[in-house]
Amino acid sequence: MACFFIFKPLLPMLTINLLREKKEFVIERLKIKNFEAEDIIEKVLSLDTVRREVQVKTDSLQADMNRISKEIGTLMKDGKKEEAENARQKTFALKEEIRQLTEKLGPIDNELRTEIIKLPNLPHESVPVGHGADDNEVVRSGGLMPEISESALPHWDLIKKYDIIDFELGIKLTGAGFPVYKGKGAKLQRALITYFLDMGEKAGYNEVYPPIMVNEDSGFGTGQLPDKEGQMYHATLDNFYLVPTAEVPVTNIYRDVILNADQLPIKNIAYTPCFRREAGSWGAHVRGLNRLHQFDKVEIVRIAHPDNSYESLEEMVNHVEGLVASLGLPYRILRLCGGDMSFTSALTYDFEVWSAAQKRWLEVSSVSNFESFQANRLKCRFKEKGDKQTRLAHTLNGSALALPRIVAAILENNQNENGIKVPEVLVPYTGFETIN
RNA sequence: GGAGAAAUGGCAGAGUGGUCGAAUGCGGCGGUCUUGAAAACCGUUGAUCUGUUACCACGGAUCCGGGGGUUCGAAUCCCUCUUUCUCCGCCA
User: Fold this and answer.
1) Which one of A2, A178, A290, A299 is CB 3.0 to 4.6 Å from A170, fit for a cystine?
2) Quick one: A142 and A103 in the same domain?
3) What is the pLDDT of residues A35-51, one digit of tens each?
4) Mean pLDDT of A244-268
5) CA of residue A104 to C1' of nucleotide B17, angstroms
6) Are A286 and A384 within one domain?
7) A81 beta carbon < 7 A from strand B?
C-alpha cells in the first residue's frame, strides 16, 4: 500500500479564542470552502466583548451579594437582629441590578451561539481549492477494469433478471427508495455486513450496535442539526431522528466525556441501517441502487489524540482501500476540494468504485478527519496524565463500507452469461459462488 | 398506562434554609517506610466561565439529574420535565 502524507492539524479548534486571536487566518481559510465568514466573525467578536463585559460586572455584583448574605447569616447567629436587617436592606438594589444584567446576558449568549455555529470547520492545508466534483484530486487508484460484453446489463436490470432486489415491492410497503432484498440478494447483504465487521474487528475495531434513533442533542453534537434538519427523518411525536449514518450515535457515545490520553485512539465499528430523506436530490443518474432512502452501512469511528489524528486518518484510508481491493473492484481515492467538502470536515477522502455497465464512478466511502470541530460541540475532551487541563479530542469516521453501490458494482462488473460471480472473499459468508 | 420512592463528586454514601464545592469511606495521584511490592501512615484529588499574569500562581462567578420559582441566602422549600427503582396493568 502506497505511503500517504501524514498531516498535522493546523490549529487547535474553531472556538471563540481562535477567532479572537486569528481572525484573519480563519477568514482566509474558510475562503477555501467558498465561505464568506467576515460578517459572522465580526458579529461574534462584538457579541463576545459585550458578553464578557456584562459577565464580569454580574460576577462582581454577585460576589458582593454573596458576601452580604454570609454576613447576615453570622449576624443572625449572634442575635444582632437590627444589624442583620440593615444589611438586608442593602441587598435589594443589588439584587435588582443583578436581575437586569442577567436578563441581558441570556439573549446575548443565544445570539452568540447561533452565530458561531454558522461557521463551518476550517479545511486542512492540503485541501485543494475548487468548487465542485471536478476539482477533486485523485490521490491514487487500483484494481483492474472489468471486461464485460456490450450486452451487459445495468444493475437495475440484473436485480430483476435474478429476482434479488425488488423496488416495486418496497414501494408497496413503504415508498420509493426502500427496496426489498430477496433470496440471494438478502443473503448478499448479510454477507457483506458480516464481512466488513469481521475485517474491522481484525483491524482492532471494537464493535458496537447503537440505537438507530437519536435525540436532538446527538444530532447537534455531530453537526447534522441545526443545518441539515430536512435531511433526516424526524419522529416528531417523540422528537427523535432516524440516523443518517452510524457516525451520529457512535460519536455521541463520547459526548460530555473526559477521556484519559492513554485511552486514545478509540476505535469503534458499527453496522446500522441508514435513513436519508434526500429531499430534492432525485434525478436520472440516481436510478436503482445509486441512491436510496434506507440503506446499510458499516462505519468506523475514531476518537484520536490531536497530535496523531492524521495518522489515524491514514490508517482508516488504508483499511477502506483494503476492503475495496479485496472485493476485486476498480477504485480510486479522491481528496475532496474545499467546495465539495462537508460543513464539518477538515479533510475528506472519498472512495469511488467503477460501475461497468453504467460506465461511471460511484462513491462508496467517505473518510474524514473532523479535528476538534465535532468534539467542540460534543464536549469530547481528554486529559494528559498528570495534567490539569482538558483538551478537545479529534474525531474521525469513514464508511467501511456503504452497501448499495458496492452491490451495484459487484453485480455489473461480475456478470457473465452464467450469472453473477460472487467475490471470493464473500463466498464463505454467502455460501454460494454465483447468483443465477 | 396507573400508584409510590428516588436522583449528591470516579464510585459508595452523609447532609432538610446560613463560612457546603459539599462529611466519611473506597478508588486515583504524590510521599514516608521497604532490596522491591503489599500493608500502614501522611498529604492531595472535579468541571465551566472570567480577572490580574508570559507561565506558574492567585482572585471572582457558576455547577448537588435538566429547566423555572420562593428567599438577603437553596444540595436543602415550591413548580415542571427527564431518568431510575418498587408494585399493578400490558407486551416480544
Assistant:
1) A178
2) no
3) 998 999 888 888 888 88
4) 90
5) 29
6) yes
7) no
The whole domain housing A67 covers 38-116
The burial of A99, by beta-carbon neighbours within 10 Å (0-12 exposed, 13-18 middle, 19 or more buried), is given as exposed
Distance CA(A286)–CA(A279), nearest Å, equals 13
User: How many Å from the CA of A107 to C1' of B62?
Assistant: 18
Query: Is it the case that residue A10 has pLDDT exceeding 60?
Result: no
Q: Is the CB of A1 under 7 A from strand B?
A: no
> Can you spell out the DSSP letters for A276-318?
---TT---GGGTGGGS-SEEEEEEEEEEE-GGGHHHHHHHHHH
Same structural domain, A257 and A315: yes
Q: Give the residue nearest to nucleotide B29 (CA to C1').
A: A386
- The highest-confidence range among A48-52, A254-258, A276-280, A321-325, by mean pLDDT, is A321-325
Which of the nucleotides in strand B have any atom less than 7 Å away from a protein CB atom? 18-19, 29, 47-51, 57, 59-62, 72-73
Q: How many domains does chain A have?
A: 2
A394-411 core/surface letters (b: 16 or more CB in 10 A; e: else): bbbbbbbbbbbbbbbbbb
What is the phi-psi region of residue A62: left when phi exceeds 0, alpha when psi lies from -120 to 50, beta otherwise? alpha
> CA-to-C1' distance for A212 and B86, Å?
30
Residue A76 CA to B72 C1' — how many Å?
11
DSSP SS3 for A400: strand
| Residue A285 CB in 7 A reach of strand B | no
Residue A285 lies in a domain: yes
Residue A20 lies inside a defined structural domain of this protein: no
Q: Is residue A5 part of a domain?
A: no
Shared domain check, A200 and A80: no
Residue bearing cell 476518537: A303
Residues 360-419 of A with CB within 7 A of strand B: 381, 383, 386, 388-390
A33 in helix, strand or coil? coil
What ipTM was predicted for this assembly?
A: 0.83
Distance A386 CA to B40 C1' (A): 26
CA dihedral A90, A96, A99, A103 (to 10 degrees): -150
Q: Is residue A74 part of a domain?
A: yes
